[in-house]
Amino acid sequence: MLELVRRHGTARVSDLAGLLGVSPVTARRDAEALAAKGLLERVHGSVSWPAAASVPGQRPQGLVLGLLAPSATYYFAEVIRGAHEAAAKAGARLILRISDYRPEEDRARVEGLLAAGAQGLLVAPGWRRPEDPQEYGEWVARLPVPAVLLERQPAPGSPLDGLDRVCSDHAYGALLAVRHLVGLGHGAPVLVARADSPTALSVRAGYTAALGSLGLAAPRAAIDSVPAELDPEGFEAAVRDLGAAVAQGATAALVHNDVDAIQVVQRLAELGVRVPEDLAVVAYDDEVAALADTPLTAVAPPKREVGRHAAELLLERLGDGDSSRRHLALLPRLRVRASCGAAGETVGASGTKEAAGSAGTSGAASV
Fold this sequence. Notes:
Elements: H1 2-8, E1 10-12, H2 13-20, H3 24-36, E2 41-43, E3 46-48, E4 64-69, H4 75-89, E5 93-98, H5 106-115, E6 120-123, H6 132-136, E7 147-150, E8 164-168, H7 170-183, E9 190-193, H8 198-213, E10 223-224, H9 232-247, E11 252-256, H10 258-270, E12 280-284, E13 297-300, H11 303-320, E14 327-330, E15 333-336, E16 345-347, E17 353-355
Helix pairs in contact: 2-3, 4-11, 7-8
Protein name: DeoR family transcriptional regulator
InterPro entries: DeoR_HTH (IPR001034), LacI/GalR-like_sensor (IPR046335), Peripla_BP_I (IPR028082), WH-like_DNA-bd_sf (IPR036388), WH_DNA-bd_sf (IPR036390)
Keywords: DNA-binding, Transcription, Transcription regulation
């Protein structure tokens, strides 16, 4: 267990149980025992390598980069992978701390990274609400080492707005989805979206901007999406709202995120609404969209590239001390599959199309 945590920096106890082939109860008991001895730090189901700990006979070589992420799974797994690859290529070490979307814990996690020797930071705060950046984020602008924000766009003019950042351009991603559906002959799609993360809020804003740029009016107010496993009644209400919109003439929908989109399509089928015959669907994230019964067309933010470019920018900042700051927005792609009734292709930033299976396309979703 100590070796696994040392290697990864932070890990969930449940994940360690699987890797070690023991029961979750055994892993939790051992984690508690190691934490009591000061060999691990334990917080909310996860364990971390102690800030002051070292490995006997081993000294860190090269630069040490710290990465704060709200999660190490789903969307952020690829972001982390891209950052790790860039750090390794430069001979730097990347250490990771996870906040589990608890913005109130972000600062403590970053202090742990600094205590562990991080000379520069990649920071993706665990914000969920629009007010979280102001309530929990302004300390990021006062960090004592260079920092790059990941997949976060603070308010213009705020202290955080002066930091380097690398983000996916979700407004452009929403435009790709709307433009694709309209190009297939549909009217403005219905938006089904969450509102519990910066990505969700950016998709909502991007959808509104996309309709405006195309001279379209929303067919109805956005339908609030919620996880089926956490709020079954809310999920059912959202699906029935979408079914009612179809009954009233809607023929297309943009759904954030992939998991919600898959479950929505499954429930619609039970209610007699077929995809794509009755409703064309575009998902947002492209993590598992290709694995649906009817593979879902999806907007694919460049998650891995975000991590890679952010790490490269941080390494450059640490290397030459350039005082100029950069806001880098990377453009998503649209991966076309069966849920819109169109042939498989990828629509890139230039608007050009690539046949499925060519460079830039993905035959299976990353998980």
